[in-house]
Amino acid sequence: MVIMNLELENILGFPNFKMNFSYPKKIVNSIIEGEHLAGRPNFRYKKAIVLMGANAAGKTSIGKILMKIFSFINSGNPNFLFEIVSKGSAGSFSIDFINEGFVLHRLVVRIYPNTSEINMRYFYSLILDGDSYEKSVSRFQDCTYFFNPDFTTTTPKEMRDHFGKINFRFAYPEIESSLNAKGINKYVLLRTLKAVLGTLDPTLTNVSISSDLQDSFIIRRKNDEIIIQNGKLLNRELLSSGTIEGIDVAFFLASMLSPKENNVFYYCDEHFSYIQSDIEKRIFGLMIEHLKENEQLIFTTHNTDMLDLNIPKHAFAFLRKKITEGECEEVTVIYASDILKRNTDSVRHAVENDVFSSLPDDSLLDTLESGGPYEE
Predict the structure, then answer these.
(1) Of 308, 368, 298, residue with least CA distance to 65
(2) Residue 110 Cα distances to 32, 137, 327, 369, angstroms
(3) Of the residues 106, 201, 272, 278, which has the fewest C-beta atoms closer than 10 A?
(4) Predicted local confidence at residue 204, as pLDDT
(5) Alpha-carbon torsion (45, 49, 55, 59), positive or negative
(6) For the segment 225-278, what is each residue's pLDDT rounded down to a tens digit?
(7) What stretch(es) of the chain map to CATH 3.40.50.300?
(8) CA 166 from chain center: how many Å?
(9) Would you call 116 exposed, middle or buried from its count of C-beta atoms within 10 A (0-12, 13-18, 19+)?
(10) Would you state the pLDDT for residue 175?
(11) What is the CATH number assigned to the segment(s) 2-172+260-361?
(12) How far apart are CA 337 and CA 276, in angstroms?
């Protein structure tokens, strides 16, 4: 599963947003291998993206929006879409993506939450030898007739049969009520838990598969036992915040390491708040190493040490939020490669000088400096 373009209008706080994932020319000696559609070397896409931005800029929201869109495509259930549009006003999205075969899809959906209706338009283009993304887009054909435009008779099976099943995995900072072990080989997960938890806390190297409890792992520290049973983390009060976060990281990483089919989309959202910077960089490197053909990873972080990674400049994306006229919030995205054109340009120096206008405005904190009067 590869996303090539995403446009949002009045979706989860994005009044007018666009993010494109193509890039113009091949990068020589990049550590991110295969940044093109398998079998179509000119059809280039950004395979791994480090997404940064201030708090509340929308990094988590983008992941949640994509999860709802993918769930809609897989299930044909429009209720997933009503969850990302505010009551009282309609919203829409447009997404270009490739899932199975050499077909570029464009799905444009208008969502009306007040009437519980949606209207859908569909375009597609065959990706030929030598095609770039832009060339394929120029040959888009309107094939909305494949589906009922107002979705009143389109069935979930018709959606799945046409697009194929979309495989995706999302991870968020909070430990969910159930960790997602679907599709993960239990022995790969065991090895990953040992490696990640042992790195974060050397007293937790004793991890095993339970012989008594089904689908369970036991983490031992001296006389304590921490159990992961059916995806639920028990005795979590015995672990630090960083170790708890590390368990979810291990599940996410193990899913990438497990033998599986290709075409998985990954979204890892700020999962390293309590984890040392060098470990975050190392684990991100492992994620890149195990991305397969026609897969994609968006990795959100606040860690500026990630800017020192030896990856293409087009892999660094920055969200910017500003208040426009009428107090409307506008979110835009800019890639480091949009501004930094020379190999010698430093992404870190550009961020420190706020070249991408992505740093938070801390001027209000000036009012708290000593010596100023306080109003009662």
Answers:
(1) 298
(2) 36, 21, 25, 48
(3) 278
(4) 87
(5) positive
(6) 999 988 888 888 888 888 888 898 999 999 999 877 678 999 999 888 888 999
(7) 2-172+260-361
(8) 14
(9) exposed
(10) 45
(11) 3.40.50.300
(12) 27
Tokens of 175: 């430990």
Q: Residue 355 and residue 340: Cα distance in Å, rounded? A: 10
Helix 186-200 and helix 277-289: axis angle, to 10°? 160
pTM across the whole model:
0.91
Per-10-residue mean pLDDT for the chain, 376 residues long? 96 92 86 93 97 87 95 90 86 96 95 89 95 97 79 67 89 64 89 94 90 90 88 85 88 89 88 88 95 96 93 94 69 93 90 84 72 56
| pLDDT the model gives residue 307 | 94
Beta pairing class for 167-171 and 264-269:
parallel
- Give residue 78's pLDDT: 87
